Amino acid sequence: MNDEKSTELLAGIAARRSCRAFENTPPAPELLASVLKYATFSPSAKNAQPWEVYVVAGERLDALRAKMDEAFHQGRGVPMHAGREMPAWQARARELNGALAPVLERQGWEPKSFIGRCLRFFDAPAAAIVCMDGEPSPLHLLDIGMFTQTLCLSAAGHGLASCIIAYTLIVEPAIREFLRLPAERRVMITVALGFPAKDQPMAQFRSSRAETGENVHFVRS
Ligand SMILES: Cc1cc2nc3c(=O)[nH]c(=O)nc-3n(C[C@H](O)[C@H](O)[C@H](O)COP(=O)(O)O)c2cc1C
């Protein structure tokens, strides 16, 4: 065993789980600033740091939610392209949906309301909109993913819960318009942030993981 193992770091990695029910209490601006400061320690190819992040909270977030909701209900959503999904991934997605179903019920949420709730950032008091300029190259897409993960870990380190939300991209044009993004800037992913509503089922839900042997391959010979 490595004596230098950081149990705090490992506990932090394990503590970051998607939370879908939040307290109304808004995180203090200084707390959010610190979350974002640590998030920028994220690595990136050639240290390009290609993320452009918009942190929205309070009344501005309510206004953004309203605009996204309006676009969704007026049928102005754009389809999301998930790309080619391998059978094993599809099976895990089905497993996730199956595991979420009873939790949605315990929370008192209609299954059909789920996408709408994603578009409301699960009523979190803060959200980060992670954008990037130009045409995304695969390497810089990885940078955005790394940044997003580091952001969520940083949030966990500050006592905040998070949920990465891609469904919001179906109303990407409404987000772009609200944030008045320059033409070349695109919304890549969004993250709900806030204190977890700990007693609520959708804050307690824990997704499963494939057995390590299923998709981790130790090459020994
Ligand atoms: C790129 C990406 C997009 C995601 N989009 C959504 C989403 O739209 N709605 C949602 O509820 N969760 C979303 N999630 C959260 C995943 O469902 C979650 O990370 C996964 O089930 C593993 O659970 P955990 O984050 O609690 O460990 C997304 C996660 C990632 C990485």
UniProtKB/TrEMBL annotation:
It comes from the Bacteria. The keyword Mitochondrion does not apply. It holds the Pfam family Nitroreductase. InterPro entries: Nitroreductase, Nitroreductase-like, Nitroreductase/BluB. Residues 13-194 form the Nitroreductase domain. CDD domains: PnbA_NfnB-like (cd02136). SUPFAM superfamilies: FMN-dependent nitroreductase-like. The keyword Oxidoreductase applies. Keywords: Flavoprotein, FMN, Oxidoreductase. Coiled coil: none annotated. GO terms for molecular function: oxidoreductase activity. This is Nitroreductase.
